[in-house]
Amino acid sequence: MLIPYHRQILREAIGGKFSERALKIITDANAKQDYLRGQIGHDEYHFDNNAMAESYAYIEENRTQIHSALQNGDVEAAWTAFGRLTHTAQDFYAHSNYIPLWLAQFDTKSAPPASDVIHDDEEIIQSPDLHSGKLYYPLELFSYIPFIGKFVMPLLPKDSHAWMNIDSPKQGKIFDYTFAAAVKVTRDELEKVLAELTKEESILFLAYNSPHD
Ligand SMILES: [Zn+2]
How many helices (H) and strands (E) does the chain have? Predict the structure, then answer.
């Protein structure tokens, strides 16, 4: 998903829960996953290349890091880990065919509004039909270049990231479902983190006591 949407999703999902300073640190860490260094060789950051188990493990790993950072009183490291974790959780809906599979149960005209999307349908999550886009380098890179892209697209298989991604509103109305699902999963991820923390750790993480931020 494109960085501006990751930012909007975070603000909409958890904006009211954190101070502006915390939200900025979370958002910057989330966005950084899409820098070049996080793009190459890191399928688990983005649910790319069918790295489902690895991506779930990466989310889990960051959740553990949040807890240990808070135990050490390092709240910034905890926010950074939360930023990384939310990036992966959000990319699931942009890079897999979860949303197309969910929408497939409705006639095109009877699909519920995007805000009603069910983001955690276990049947779809466990389905053998669920897969995510593969990165076919270097062709994938050329597909993003204006004018050249349209000549490259027919050369790329339909299971490529270039064909499958729902990274921006350029993909059409379907992006609204991706966005709404990503907002919902971000809230879930915050709940999961908080469930593992003591009261004191939660207060530190949410920075209730820093009105000056
Ligand atoms: Zn990404």
Answer: 13, 0
Omega before 128 cis (within 30°)?
no
What is the per-residue pLDDT for 208?
Answer: 60
pLDDT at position 203, please?
94
Does pLDDT of 176 surpass 90?
Answer: yes
Q: What is the pLDDT of residue 144?
A: 86
Q: In angstroms, what is the span from residue 161 Cα to ligand 1's centroid? A: 11
Domain boundaries, the chain: 3-206
Phi, psi of 210 (to 5 degrees): -120, 70
Buried b (16+ CB within 10 A) or exposed e, 170-183: eeeebbbbbbbbbb
pTM summary value: 0.94
pLDDT in tens, 58-84: 999 999 999 999 999 999 999 999 999
- How would you class 116 by CB atoms within 10 Å of its CB: exposed for 0-12, middle for 13-18, buried for 19 or more? exposed
Q: How many angstroms separate the alpha carbon of residue 95 from the centre of ligand 1?
A: 9
Cα(126)–Cα(58) distance, integer angstroms:
18
- Cα of 30 from ligand 1 centre, angstroms: 9
Q: How far is the CA of 84 from the centre of ligand 1 (A)?
A: 10
Tell me how far the alpha carbon of residue 167 lies from the centroid of ligand 1, in angstroms: 9
